[in-house]
Amino acid sequence: MTASTDNRRPIPSRTSRWAVALAKAVAGLGISANAVSVSSLVFAALAAAALLAAPERPALYLAAALLCPLRLLANLIDGMVAVEHGRATPTGPLYNEIPDRLADVAILAAAGASAAAAAGTGFVADWGTLVGWLAAVAALMTAYVRELGRALGRPADFGGPFAKQQRMVAVTIGSLGAAVEGLWGGHGEILFAAVLIVAIGTMATAWRRLARLAAFLRAGAPE
Q1: 155: buried, middle or exposed (CB in 10 Å: 19+, 13-18, 0-12)?
Q2: Is the dihedral of CA 207, 213, 214, 215 positive or negative?
Q3: Which residues form the domain of 203?
Q4: Mind listing the pLDDT tens digit for each residue in 115-146?
Q5: Residue 104 falls inside a structural domain
């Protein structure tokens, strides 16, 4: 399903027992949905810091591989606390969107720079940082097209192939690979490949969302 009738991303795990229990526990502690949203940015900033430091200390790639899923977990729980537990606020949409956009930029740009630093010289060193920023810009575009569509009357489009979850899964896998690639003499290639896939896939995602939005507008245009 590529579109939602509201601005909540359709996530099957939202109804899982562990997610329901975790959201209930967070709400029971009096933690606001906005605070959970901000925590996602904290996890992303820590992931970015780990990625940037990892070329000198490869074990930090494992930390990044843990922090990226924690960012997604916070993104899941904040909406549940807001909606299911009645903690929504007038500024909630701002807290829901802005940390997400900053988190994408921080993680993707840092991943590209990390791959470049790990490589030192050669193709990956020359292009890693640029590819990371391309992935970050493409991630911003996917969100922009989604919100533009909502402003124009279309249901929120969370379609892929590289929406937020897929981007973070790719960086997580790339980070895990980067942590061990030294065993066979690798230097940034795995993380670079992950970021390149994210950049290409996310640009395709933005294009597909834009095409669906254009089709929606044409369908509603007077003849």
Answers
A1: middle
A2: positive
A3: 12-220
A4: 999 999 999 999 999 999 999 999 999 999 99
A5: yes
